[in-house]
């Protein structure tokens, strides 16, 4: 019995550096997965997210240089911050879809008609988000996400951290790109709504007796739905291209 305990103790001492290195990688990967589109959604159970994080860690760990097991709690906090930064950069693309959905819903008078499902947002935003997640996963989001995590150890080595001014500049660039993408996706609907309302105003001036609101509201909704059916494939293609651009250069915006 004593020999068995001795052997188990020696085995634990031999495996301790590998387990600590695994933990070091897991902290960054788990922080990224918690915000990763499709895998980090609020509808995904926490246990499933944990299993996904462990699977990504097993993929990323062997693909990076050996991690020094001698680290402190501050190093772990820095790794978690880097993971959250990468995950937030990807999550911004979901925010862009939700922003575009809210603008489109207001433009075609669907913001309150159907209510909201899941997240508190118009049904157009939910449709865009679900469609974009399906397209991204079918295009290999899990593979690109693993590549991003592996690449992050070259761009942001463990223990180096990121200066606060550079991080703030990167965050501002991501927020700017989010709103730019959201407005670009919703621009056709805003333009169509503006032209339609101008035409309705001219008709109302020419024919004051006509109840423009009774005729105009269903027409703008029907036209908006038709335009959405036509434009949504192109919108998703533009969004996927922007996502691929970020995955290819995640630190764009840093000096």
Structure, explained:
With 255 residues, this protein is mostly helical. It has one domain (2-248). The chain has seven helices and no strands. Helix 3 (73-107) packs across helix 4 and helix 6 packs antiparallel against helix 7 (212-248).
In short:
With 255 residues, this protein is an all-alpha fold. It has seven helices and no strands. The protein is elongated and about 100 Å long.
Can you lay out the helices and strands and say which pair or pack?
Layout: H1 2-33, H2 46-60, H3 73-107, H4 123-138, H5 141-155, H6 164-206, H7 212-248
State the secondary-structure class.
Answer: mainly alpha
Query: Can you tell me the number of structural domains?
Result: 1
Largest sheet: none
Radius of gyration: 24 Å
Quote the distance from N terminus to C terminus. Answer: 61 Å
Mean pLDDT reading: 82
Classify the beta-strand content into a percent band: under 5%
Q: What sort of overall outline do the alpha carbons produce when their principal axes are compared?
A: elongated
Assembly status = single chain
Low-confidence stretches: 113-118
Secondary structure: number of strands:
0
Percent helix:
over 70%
Order of helices and strands: HHHHHHH
């Amino acid at each position: 019995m004593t020999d068995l305990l001795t052997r188990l103790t020696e085995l634990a001492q031999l495996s301790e550096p590998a387990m600590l290195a695994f933990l070091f990688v897991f902290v960054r990967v788990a922080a990224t997965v918690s915000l990763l589109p499709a895998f980090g959604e609020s509808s995904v159970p926490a246990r499933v997210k944990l299993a996904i994080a462990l699977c990504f860690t097993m993929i990323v760990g062997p693909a990076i240089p050996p991690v020094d097991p001698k680290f402190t709690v501050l190093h772990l906090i820095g790794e978690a911050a880097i993971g959250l930064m990468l995950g937030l950069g990807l999550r911004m693309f979901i925010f862009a879809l939700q922003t575009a959905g809210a603008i489109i819903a207001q433009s075609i008078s669907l913001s309150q008609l159907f209510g909201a499902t899941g997240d508190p947002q118009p049904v157009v935003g939910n449709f865009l988000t679900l469609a974009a997640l399906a397209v991204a996963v079918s295009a290999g989001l899990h593979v690109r996400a693993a590549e991003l995590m592996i690449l992050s150890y070259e761009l942001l080595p463990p223990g180096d951290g990121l200066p606060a001014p550079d991080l703030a500049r990167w965050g501002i660039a991501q927020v700017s790109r989010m709103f730019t993408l959201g407005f670009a996706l919703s621009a056709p609907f805003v333009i169509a709504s503006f032209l339609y309302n101008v035409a309705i105003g001219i008709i109302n001036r020419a024919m004051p007796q006509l109840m423009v609101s009774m005729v105009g509201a269903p027409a703008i909704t029907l036209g908006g739905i038709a335009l959405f059916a036509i434009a949504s494939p192109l919108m998703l293609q533009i969004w996927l291209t922007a996502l691929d651009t970020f995955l290819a250069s995640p630190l764009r915006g840093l000096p």
